[in-house]
Amino acid sequence: MDLRARPYRSVLYIPGSKERALEKARALPIDAIIFDLEDAVAPGEKTAARETLAEALSRPYGNRTRIVRINGFDTEWGEADARAAAAMDCDAILLPKVETTAQLDVLAALTDKPLWAMMETPMGMMNAGQIAAHPRLQGMVMGTNDLAKDLNSRFRADRLPMLTGLGLCVLAAKAHGVTIVDGVYNAFKDDEGLQAECVQGRDLGMDGKTLIHPAQVEIANAAFAPGTDEIDLARRQIDAFEEAAKAGQGVAVVDGKIVENLHVETARKMLAKAEAIAALAE
Ligand SMILES: CC(C)(COP(=O)(O)OP(=O)(O)OC[C@H]1O[C@@H](n2cnc3c(N)ncnc32)[C@H](O)[C@@H]1OP(=O)(O)O)[C@@H](O)C(=O)NCCC(=O)NCCSC(=O)C[C@H](O)C(=O)O
Ligand SMILES: [Mg+2]
Fold first, then answer.
1. What is the ipTM of this complex?
2. Where does substrate bind (predicted)?
3. Buried-state track 233-257, b at ≥16 Cβ within 10 A, e below 16
């Protein structure tokens, strides 16, 4: 399956140095994993974490998408991480703090694997369109902690300071057919706050949410999956439009609202997403 066709409702970060967490993830109902060598790993553990992670990835993670986040090329670990990740049994490599396509070119020269980009600096936001257009890029991950740091913004439940950056990246990703996953919700015991942020991200057009703790998985999976009412409506829209087309009409009406070919396209995408989610559970 093309990586971009897979579901990304729940994308769990796991520190590459934490053996217990690396084991636990094999049984979690997550759509994808970001195996982290960057911020979640202390400087003194970076080299050992590469070995720990390579060993963990040599054993199965089921049908979860496996993404390795390396350190940036402006650090002493970046290049060795990239070479090590290129040899690991993973699906993609994620580069932090991407601001230019030149940074992706450096990584592309070191691996044939699909590339993902952390979008988490003001310059990254400004260049989101060019970054999303990189021919090897398949996914973007919002880094809202780093973005808040650079913006010197305050945490707000409505994420007002983030909205311009989130919107620019969603536009860039959609324009170039790239997956986009929202930033983490740090307060991992606050289910209500997480739920609200998942709904906001979903409504903005995000494909899913990055998570830091297993307790967050269920909420993200539910928020980013099509609901039974949405699936039912999608089926009825498709049926009604096909009936209308047979009668030579270009528009149908369902529940008092018009249905045109563009709505049918959305409905078909939703059903395909529901099928991809169901296939993950098989
Ligand atoms: C936040 C944590 C440090 C909390 O860890 P801990 O105190 O161990 O939590 P619990 O005791 O509640 O854990 C219960 C069990 O769950 C396992 N666990 C915990 N976290 C994970 C995980 N992420 N993946 C898999 N399994 C996990 C524990 O091992 C316990 O298992 P068991 O003993 O068998 O019951 C911790 O959750 C953590 O380290 N989270 C990840 C933090 C991280 O990766 N941060 C970096 C990414 S965020 C970021 O950088 C975003 C971006 O760049 C930006 O700028 O915004
Ligand atoms: Mg970051």
1. 0.98
2. 69, 120
3. bbeebbebbeebeeeeeeebebeee
